[in-house]
């Protein structure tokens, strides 16, 4: 018996020694700070341009800032501006955004200026997309290109992983999100050594990115909703129902996604696809109001400041309009990500549940709604749980979300994703 036990092989690879991990710290910190600076630079530039386009210019022309006329003018003009970038700038602002996710390929350096310009114009002009996909793609491309040039001894895959982690840390203001995303990505591939050894350098990059962003451009995700006490059976039921409803609503958008993309592709030219998409977004913005424009982060804070300020019908209208705007913007060619506008959709859905059934606490409704929508649109469980939990910053809500994620995940797993292959078919 003792001999058999002694002959048993270890079930896990040995941990990496400290000397193997130490050389990765400096590159990780450099990538983390650089990725954050690029994100902050694009964000601040877009915010300044947004102020000119949506405040200074309409005031000078004596037109209402968010009048129906100005919404149409700005969305169509943004479509024309981004269309010109996609058409004329070298690299055409990168691949079709409908085929891009958070895990972007390393794009050639000449593509990145056009991609960043298209993203900045989109953020300022009002389409319902966030900065995450183009910023991650740009940071990965820069990190891989500079890393190969100046530190050729490190593998390209490491530079890409560092840049992705750093950008996620910068976007969310915490390295936890990056650690969760990278660990989920590593789960699908063979790894050498312990998981924490593989997360060591990405976590350092994410921490550097998050800290740099917090120092330069702090943005809190906490909506400061009324706290909830000890959860009861009603809270559990509310979380289960709202998260499942969010997953179903999100899957409706996922199933529409390839058909709307195919319709825009029939226009064949970016100077047709993007202005037409801008016109559709203008109509949706006129229907849903100014809160349904832009990436949605500032707008969810406005919703959360007054959960009783809109009726259930108004919340439902904003959720549906925002989701339609997200799908339109992502399929007609605007460069941007889907997480931030999806958070708005989930927030509006959760507050709609609270308006319909006042016994549903706003914090529970919002967190569960965001969880369900993100599970359907991103198909990334850790990101969905983390984002939903950080909005309300409550350990009690985290427990409810873990329970609510189970039926919501069953509704979305194995079904098409909101990302297409180059031939236009959805990824499963």
Automatic annotation (TrEMBL):
Keyword Magnesium: no
Native source species: Streptomyces griseochromogenes
GO function terms (MF aspect): chloride transmembrane transporter activity
Membrane-spanning segments: 20-46, 67-89, 109-126, 157-182, 194-216, 236-260, 272-293, 313-332, 363-378, 385-412
UniProt keyword Transmembrane present: yes
Principal location listed in the UniProt entry: membrane
Subcellular location: Membrane
Protein's recorded name: H+/Cl- antiporter ClcA
GO cellular component: plasma membrane
Keywords, in A-Z order: Membrane, Transmembrane, Transmembrane helix
Top-level taxon of the source organism: Bacteria
Membrane topology of this protein: Multi-pass membrane protein
């Amino acid at each position: 018996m003792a001999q058999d036990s002694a002959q048993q092989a270890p079930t896990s690879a040995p941990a990496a020694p400290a000397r193997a991990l130490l050389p990765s710290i400096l590159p990780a910190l450099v990538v983390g700070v650089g990725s954050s600076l690029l994100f902050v630079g694009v964000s601040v530039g877009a915010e300044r341009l947004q102020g000119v386009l949506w405040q200074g210019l309409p005031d000078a022309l004596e037109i209402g800032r968010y009048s129906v006329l100005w919404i149409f003018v700005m969305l169509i003009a943004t479509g024309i501006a981004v269309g010109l970038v996609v058409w004329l700038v070298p690299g055409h602002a990168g691949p079709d955004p409908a085929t891009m996710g958070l895990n972007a390929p390393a794009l050639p350096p000449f593509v990145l200026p056009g991609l960043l310009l298209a993203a900045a114009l989109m953020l300022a002009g009002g389409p319902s997309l966030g900065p995450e996909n183009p910023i991650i793609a740009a940071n990965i491309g820069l990190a891989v290109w500079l890393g190969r040039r100046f530190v050729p001894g490190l593998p390209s895959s490491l530079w890409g992983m560092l840049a992705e982690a750093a950008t996620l840390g910068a976007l969310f203001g915490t390295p936890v999100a990056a650690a969760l995303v990278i660990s989920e990505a590593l789960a699908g591939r063979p790894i050498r050594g312990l998981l924490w050894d593989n997360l060591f350098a990405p976590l350092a990059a994410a921490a550097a990115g998050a800290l740099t962003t917090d120092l330069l451009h702090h943005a809190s995700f906490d909506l400061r909703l009324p706290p909830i006490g000890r959860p009861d059976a009603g809270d559990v039921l509310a979380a289960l129902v709202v998260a499942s409803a969010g997953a179903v609503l999100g899957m409706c958008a996922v199933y529409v996604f390839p058909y709307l993309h195919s319709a825009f592709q029939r226009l064949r030219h970016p100077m047709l696809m993007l202005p037409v998409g801008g016109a559709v977004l203008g109509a949706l913005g006129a229907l849903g109001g100014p809160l349904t424009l832009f990436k949605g982060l500032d707008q969810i804070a406005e919703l959360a400041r007054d959960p009783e300020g809109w009726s259930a019908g108004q919340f439902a209208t904003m959720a549906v309009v925002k989701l339609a705007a997200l799908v339109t913007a992502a399929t007609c060619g605007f460069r941007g990500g889907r997480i931030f506008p999806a958070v708005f959709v989930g927030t509006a859905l959760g507050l709609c549940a609270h308006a319909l059934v006042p016994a549903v606490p706003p914090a529970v409704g919002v967190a569960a709604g965001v969880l369900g929508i993100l599970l359907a649109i991103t198909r990334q469980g850790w990101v969905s749980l983390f984002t939903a939990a950080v909005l309300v910053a409550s350990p009690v809500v985290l427990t409810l979300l873990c329970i609510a994620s189970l039926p919501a995940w069953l509704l979305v797993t194995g079904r098409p994703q909101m990302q297409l292959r180059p031939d236009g078919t959805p990824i499963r």
